Amino acid sequence: MHLLCTNDDGFLAHGLECLVKAAEMLGDVTIVAPDREQSATSHALTLHHPIRPVARGEKRWQVDGTPTDCVMLAIEALMPERPDFVLSGINHGNNMGEDVLYSGTVAAAMEGVTLGVPAIALSFAGGELKADPALLTDQIPAVTALLRHLTALEIPNDTLLNVNLPSRLAKDIRGVRLTRLGRRVYSDSLMKMLDPRKREIYWIGGGSASWSGPSDSDFRAVDDGYISVTPLSLDLTHLRMLDESKLWWSEP
Hints:
Number of strands: 13
Radius of gyration: 19 Å
Order of helices and strands: EHEEEHEHHEHHEEEEEEHEH
């Protein structure tokens, strides 16, 4: 099996290193990743200047572009054959609920699906990763086992799998749950400040968040110590509204 590994935290990120170690147990790995952190870039493409891949070893490429750029470049230019799977992550922080709309990690996996390659996005739901990288390193065998199972599944063509790992040692992980997206509401995420010249500026980020959702939501599984696996579809159509169209539209 040939696996393409990418991320949005950058080529040197610890999470990518852990993902590659886990994936190498399953097959041949190619890395194509951004040269810097690209968090919250969503599905952005670089359109106004060329992107430049730099070789960093055999089947290892560093790219001055977004996660989506990396996947497109890998599949359509750098790899002699299409990969069997795109693996994106392991992100430094969770990607649950509405986060998937902003996440470069999820977008890279989505680009793989768009190009006809099944894909899995993986994130580590622990804010302390930078302080204690050993916590994620300990989960590498568990990630290998999970990937071995997920890559053997028949995944629909328009679907990617979004995985969130709990912030605990592998021996304390309680299992795997199939989940749906929860809902996250941010408070005070826009901060008004002054620059050194006393000009008004705004900083996006920080603040607090509150979660809501049914018992099978992604955040509940992670909070309970389970690995969350959420299938995400590229088709954003609200099917129930289509079914109820007669209630709000009538032909002239």
